[in-house]
Design a protein that fits this description.
The complex is a heterodimer of chains A (231) and B (733). Chain A is α/β, with parallel strands linked by helices. Chain A has helices at residues 14-24, 67-77, 87-94, 151-159, 218-230, and strands spanning 2-7, 28-33, 44-47, 81-85, 101-103, 111-119, 135-142, 146-148, 163-168, 187-191, 197-200. With 733 residues, chain B is of the alpha+beta class. The chains are: A alpha/beta (231), B alpha+beta (733).
Chain lengths: 231, 733
């Protein structure tokens, strides 16, 4: 299968995603420059982390107007697989491919550390190789990862099983102590209603090799690869 | 033409003596633009007038093949060049902590990618006054905000560093930042212009009036009371820097870039004159092409501005468009502002007239001064320590907890968790577990990096204190399994015009040179920061050492935390009754005095080699050096520094007959605490013996979550963890 990694000026996890897809997952991958409109021939688009266009206004607020995002929105609405990691998740919220918004972390600081995540839905293209309730260790690194959504919106996410990952402790307990940034309902990652668009704050590309402390994130990429194969 | 008065040259930071030299060299009165250019190039910050004579002592060769460039240096590992440098941004940070620190990061990153190397890691060594002063808390928070705001955005992980607090830094904090980069050996670029007719291209941000006089008026003078220096601080834009990194590395990859230099201190002046001088050519530029963001800028302002995120490139004639297109694709300015010419002068045109015409070598070869130095009288006094009147602690448990909770020792996760330390997916050993380890992709090798300096030691004994800074940095690298390879030094001192301050500088430099020579380390780059004073006196002499080491096999790395219960705990090296200058004396007895611990460089090297061999043979489970806080603190950290996997320790014998406080908290040098499975003990002993290193078995790791040391310490790990892990943030409230 063929992956595309979007490069905005200010993206800084683009090369990491490229590395993992290319060298660890061993799949074909190319960069997509932010001014490109033609994304034909790709099976999965990764919107990586970083500070697109400097993110001086609000994370993702400028990126939503980029040329490449117009194509990605069309691609996603046709059912194409899109995964937004960190800043990528923030951008997916800004273009309304996913519901909700990001607030600054509750402690008002940038937070970079490992978190534990419980797989709440293993029936998605991004998690189907994990077991239900499996605990994954992946790092976060963000200043605005405090996911917020209205109570009605939250209920819809819950009812549709759109909540995919929630922050938990090492034993899978989901509570406020295990919540690093104040996200509502400990939400770390959600999918779109149809399940083909995935946004998450933790970095699976930083936890795809044992030597970096965890390879749990690779499960996400492997799931995507496997999913595409069976379609 | 403006007549140059004493008032004008003094306001630019030039002394009468220097102005006389300028008249001699030019054989005429300088223009205002020329005077401005010379004032920045001849500032202490850029020109190293007082220090240059002594810097020649530093070894330029070591165990690894060394590269010395114009802006940075490095080592060769296989086909890779590891480039690194540390630089200070002290005065800007004291004046405006967030922007001061941020632009420090921006500047040091540019020094690395201008060599053609991709920046892969940052470390920062910070010093502040005591945190009970609200202004010092403001500085600390501002500096951290600046580092995280810039470093996180630009996508270079901040993987290590250190923070210390001493009253001497009140009024003059230190922000020393180090960047490491990597390149294929044959892709490196120099900051040299060459090829008559080749283009000089300006790339990056537009020029404004910010930072005028940053290196001369701000960095090369003391702070006086009530002085307002904020306009001399620059403002950074990490987003632009990120684009500049990518565009520049892309430009270099075309092969059309002949030479390249960033515009840091002294901006256009420094970059053009140093590119010309080191290339043995001349450069002519026309200011009308320089992108600017303010109107009516005078030529001297354009030449002195320290606006951030700017580069100068020397590009093959006919290839200008290829290079400019790359920058504009990244949304950056790139314009031809001049060309290389044969006559070895820097010529600046403005409105059709030549406003400066100076030999490049005159700009880059300022006078060298031989500064007088004298050992201050108080040294003898502060070395005195009468242990017989020093009371022993009544409760060793609470003493240990207090030391663990002191701001110098307490874990700094509150700080490093605000830094992205994982981006670029190379970070194998993260902050908080010893030296940082970064893998080299597509290689089984890795590099390790650390910064170190115990400035209290340097205050009491600068020569040995500086040697200890080198030795301890090396020890940190050994503990992760790295062969120490080379250093960069950032030398922070007071006013060099004062002989006692200069004696500190000279003594520290001699100490670094001797230790590096002995340990086979080259000094690849560095920076001198003088005039670090406040109205009450000088800072502690702080020769910060940034060291890089090489790990042969990334699978054979090691960390400081105990790994398995029932393993042997062993100490290598000798423990003596050495309490002078210790953290214990400072925290518990509020004393800064006493001769600092002895350092035997030969024993140091043998011990380091022994530990490295043990790690390479896979014999030991953990290694941690004994430093501030002594053996008790080392053991405590071995027990609790891996939060999810804490192990207890029972120490039932110790190899020293001395006061118990010296035994537990003394800071004797060249010591390592290691743990190992019993089956390897014979081989470990053999290696120690072969290297003639003292070895003592002192106890075992335990499943019982307690640290027990003889009859003195008996503490649950939870209590140790709480003091060590949670205390730091409390000082900031």
């Amino acid at each position: 299968m063929r992956f595309g990694v979007v490069v905005f000026p200010g993206s800084n996890c683009d090369q990491d995603c490229f590395w993992v897809v290319n060298r660890v997952l061993k799949q074909s991958v190319r960069y997509i420059w932010h001014q490109e409109a033609d994304i034909r021939g790709l099976d999965c688009i990764i919107i990586p982390g970083g500070f697109s266009y400097g993110d001086y206004l609000r994370p993702g607020a400028i990126a939503r107007f980029s040329r490449v995002m117009k194509s990605i929105v069309k691609f996603a609405k046709r059912g194409g697989l899109v995964i937004g990691i960190c800043n990528g998740f923030q951008i997916l919220l800004e273009v309304d491919l996913l519901p909700g918004a990001m607030l600054p972390n509750k402690n008002l600081h940038f937070i970079c550390r490992d978190t534990y995540l419980r797989v709440e839905n293993n029936q998605t293209p991004f998690t189907h190789l994990s077991s239900a309730g499996q605990i994954l260790k992946m790092p976060i690194a963000h200043h605005e990862g405090n996911f917020y959504i209205t109570i009605d919106g939250l209920k819809r996410l819950q009812d549709n099983r759109q909540i995919v990952l929630r922050y938990c402790d090492a034993y899978g307990k989901v509570d406020s102590e295990a919540n690093p940034n104040g996200a509502i309902d400990n939400i770390a990652g959600i999918v779109s209603e149809k399940g083909n668009i995935f946004g998450l704050m933790p970095h699976p590309e930083r936890s795809s090799e044992d030597i970096l402390g965890s390879d749990d994130g690779l499960l996400i990429f492997q799931s995507i690869k496997q999913w595409a194969k069976t379609r | 033409m403006t007549r140059i008065t004493k008032e004008i040259y003094q306001s630019l930071g030039l002394s009468d003596l220097l102005y006389q030299r300028i008249l001699e060299i030019l054989n005429r009165q300088p223009t205002l633009t020329e005077l401005a250019m010379l004032s920045v190039e001849w500032s202490e910050h850029c020109g190293y007038l007082c220090s240059r004579k002594w810097l020649r002592l530093l070894p330029r060769e070591g165990r690894f093949k060394t590269l010395i460039g114009e802006d940075s240096g490095g080592i060769i590992v296989d086909g890779w060049a590891i480039i690194f440098k540390m630089e200070s941004h002290n005065h800007p940070s004291q004046v405006e902590p967030k922007q001061g620190a941020a632009t420090g990061i921006g500047g040091i990153i540019r020094d690395i990618f201008t060599a053609g190397a991709r920046p892969i890691a940052l470390l920062d060594s910070l010093r502040f006054g005591n945190l009970d002063d609200p202004y010092n808390r403001y500085l600390l928070k501002g500096v951290i905000e600046g580092i995280q705001g810039y470093g996180n955005c630009v996508g270079v992980p901040t993987v290590g560093g250190e923070i210390y607090f001493e009253e001497a830094y009140t009024g003059n904090c230190l922000v020393n930042v180090m960047c490491i980069g990597i390149a294929k050996r044959d892709e490196l670029k120099r900051a040299r212009a060459s090829g008559i007719g080749n283009a000089i291209i300006y790339a990056g941000a537009s020029t404004g009036r910010d930072g005028i006089g940053g290196c001369s008026v701000l960095a090369s003078a003391e702070f006086a009371e009530g002085e307002e220096k904020r306009p001399t601080v620059q403002i950074g834009d990490p987003f632009m820097e990120k684009c500049l990194i990518e565009a520049t590395l892309e430009a270099i990859a075309t092969g059309f870039v002949v030479g390249i230099k960033d515009m840091g201190a002294a901006g256009l002046t420094c970059s053009t004159s140093e590119m010309a001088s080191s290339g043995g050519v001349g450069i002519t530029i026309d200011l009308k092409y320089v992108p600017r963001r303010e109107e009516d800028m005078q030529p001297w302002e354009l030449m002195m501005s320290e606006s951030q995120e700017r580069m100068i490139l020397c590009v093959k004639k006919g290839r200008e468009r290829d290079i400019c297109n790359i920058y504009s694709r990244w949304g950056l300015n790139a314009v031809v502002i001049g060309h290389v010419c044969p006559d070895k002068t820097v010529k600046v045109k403005h409105n059709g007239k030549i406003v400066a015409n100076i030999p490049a070598s005159a700009l880059t070869n300022p006078p060298v001064f031989d500064m007088p130095y004298r050992e201050p009288d108080y040294i003898k006094e502060i070395k005195k320590l009468n242990l017989s009147v020093l009371p022993l602690p009544t409760d060793y448990n609470s003493t240990l907890l207090r030391i663990l909770a002191s701001p110098a020792i307490a874990n700094k996760h509150w700080v490093y968790e605000q830094y992205d330390h994982m981006v670029q997916v190379n970070t194998v050993v993260r902050p908080g577990l010893g030296a940082a380890v970064l893998r080299i992709k597509d290689s089984k090798r890795a590099i390790a990096a650390t910064t170190d300096c115990n400035s209290r030691y340097c205050f009491i004994n600068p020569y040995r204190g500086a040697q200890i800074a080198v030795a301890e940095a090396a020890r940190n690298l050994i503990c992760v399994g790295a062969q120490p390879a080379a250093i960069t030094d950032c030398l922070n001192f007071g006013n060099p015009q004062k002989p006692d301050r200069f004696w500190y500088f000279k003594s520290c430099l001699e100490g670094i040179a001797e230790a590096c020579r002995f340990l086979g380390l080259s000094v690849v780059s560095g920076n001198v920061s003088f005039y670090n004073e406040n109205p009450n006196g000088a800072i502690y002499p702080t020769p910060t050492i940034g060291m890089v080491g090489v790990i042969d096999d990334v699978k054979m790395i090691n960390t400081q935390s105990f790994k398995k219960d029932g393993e042997l705990i062993i100490i290598l090296g000798n423990s003596r009754e050495e309490l002078g200058g210790s953290e214990y004396l400072k925290v518990i007895h509020r004393m800064v005095c006493g001769e600092i611990p002895d350092l035997d460089l030969s024993l140091e090297m043998r011990t380091q080699e022994a530990v490295l061999n043990m790690i390479r043979e896979g014999l030991i489970s953990s290694a941690h050096d004994c430093s501030e806080g002594g053996l008790a603190v080392t053991l405590a950290e071995c027990c609790v520094s891996q939060e999810e996997f804490m192990l207890g320790a029972e120490i039932d014998r110790l190899p020293c007959i001395c006061r118990p406080d010296a035994l537990l908290f003394g800071e004797s040098q060249s010591r390592f605490v290691i743990s190992a499975s019993e089956e390897y003990f014979a081989r470990i002993k053999q290696i120690a013996k072969e290297n003639n290193v003292p070895l003592y078995l002192i106890g075992r790791t335990t499943k019982v979550r307690k640290l027990k040391i003889l009859n003195y310490i008996d503490l649950p790990l939870e209590e140790i963890y709480k003091s060590w892990y949670n205390s730091f943030v409390n000082y900031l409230r």
